């Protein structure tokens, strides 16, 4: 995705409140919209903002989630009540899942420098205003319920790429943020069981760490990054026990919470979780793959849009991990962009510049296979 890195500015729209957004990323996944919804928003926003007087181009988008709440009760999503028909029968509807969320959007754009002059209209304010009239992952943008301007600035930010990357890790004495110390573990008795402390100990004063202002705007929050190397590692582990294991088996195992029993030296049985070291790892949908040839526009009957080519596709899946955005050393590691290969029938999204592999983990040497899912229709 070399072309996605050829941008000149960053636009950050902090803490956008969205209600009734799509909760299903794919037929098998729910909890947060698919990243294809946000890359589609990027394209739609570019078409809305770009004019002869405003030559903008949106290259990539990053998303930081601050609050996500599924509209469900006792494990069942809330359904809308559709108007009844003339014969007083209930109108058929498709069951769906919705959620409310607060997200920060980071766009990588190409914008001329004269938009930064004081005598010009503020570009980020205009982009924010246009976004407020659009759908975000099928949801409606609403004002923040309880904004707190003293905690972090809520104004949109426009900065040159070099200045933004320089400010990403830069902090001053005025940017001190009080963070509480971790509570010490309770004392243990000889049998290894915890016991209540006899007297309360005075708590340590909170430590102060320098947090750059740009990162403070993202707190608290988490960003979704793709880590396809985990799929290949899990596939190798499964094939050591079952040579017939497939990438789909590895993908399912990374999405499940399972435990197995082990005996220690004393013969006691202990239950060990298979999710050790996989905190924040989730299966994700990354786009679509063709399952048939591409037909010219208007040649397929009852197509949703007869003015564009038609091709039957199915969902493509990969593995992602939720991470704290402030731990990333470069903001480009948050960005997602389209990666299409029409000759292969692959229409997916991916990271513009994947974050470096953490210490203690192995780096995948090759791109693992992507698991396919349920067939879906794509007309544009």
TrEMBL record:
Pfam families: Cas_Csy2. InterPro entries: CRISPR-assoc_prot_Csy2 (IPR013398). Residues 175-213, 353-380 are annotated as: Disordered. Residues 363-380 have a biased composition (Polar residues). This is Type I-F CRISPR-associated protein Csy2. It comes from Formicincola oecophyllae. The lineage of its organism: Bacteria, Pseudomonadati, Pseudomonadota, Alphaproteobacteria, Acetobacterales.
């Amino acid at each position: 995705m070399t072309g996605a890195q050829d941008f000149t500015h960053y636009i950050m729209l902090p803490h956008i409140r969205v209600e009734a957004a799509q909760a299903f990323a794919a037929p098998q996944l729910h909890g947060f919209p698919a990243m294809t919804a946000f890359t589609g928003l990027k394209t739609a926003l570019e078409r809305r903002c770009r004019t002869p007087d405003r030559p903008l181009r949106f290259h990539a988008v990053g998303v930081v989630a601050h609050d996500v709440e599924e509209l469900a009760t006792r494990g069942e999503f809330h359904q809308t009540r559709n108007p009844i028909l003339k014969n007083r029968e209930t109108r058929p509807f498709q069951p769906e899942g919705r959620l409310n969320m607060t997200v920060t959007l980071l766009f990588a754009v190409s914008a001329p420098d004269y938009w930064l002059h004081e005598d010009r209209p503020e570009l980020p304010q205009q982009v924010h205003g246009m976004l407020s009239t659009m759908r975000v992952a099928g949801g409606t943008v609403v004002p923040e319920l309880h904004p707190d301007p003293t905690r972090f600035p809520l104004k949109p930010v426009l900065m040159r790429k070099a200045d933004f990357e320089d400010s990403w890790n830069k902090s001053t004495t005025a940017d001190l943020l009080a963070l509480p110390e971790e509570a010490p573990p309770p004392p243990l008795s000889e049998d290894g069981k915890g016991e209540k402390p006899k007297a309360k100990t005075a708590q340590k004063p909170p430590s102060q760490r320098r947090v750059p202002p740009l990162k403070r705007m993202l707190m608290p929050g988490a960003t979704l990054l793709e880590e396809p190397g985990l799929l290949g590692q899990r596939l190798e582990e499964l094939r050591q026990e079952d040579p017939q294991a497939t990438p789909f088996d590895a993908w399912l195992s990374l999405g499940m919470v399972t435990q197995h029993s082990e005996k220690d030296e004393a013969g006691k049985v202990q239950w060990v979780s298979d999710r050790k070291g996989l905190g924040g790892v989730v299966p994700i949908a990354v786009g679509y793959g063709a399952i048939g040839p591409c037909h010219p526009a208007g040649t397929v009957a009852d197509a949703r849009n007869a003015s564009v080519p038609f091709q039957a596709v199915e969902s493509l899946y990969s593995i992602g991990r939720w991470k704290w955005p402030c731990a990333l050393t470069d903001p480009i590691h948050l960005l997602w962009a389209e990666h299409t290969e029409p000759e292969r029938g692959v229409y997916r999204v991916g990271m513009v510049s994947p974050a470096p592999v953490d210490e203690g983990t192995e780096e995948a040497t090759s791109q693992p296979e992507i698991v396919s899912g349920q067939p879906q229709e794509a007309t544009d």
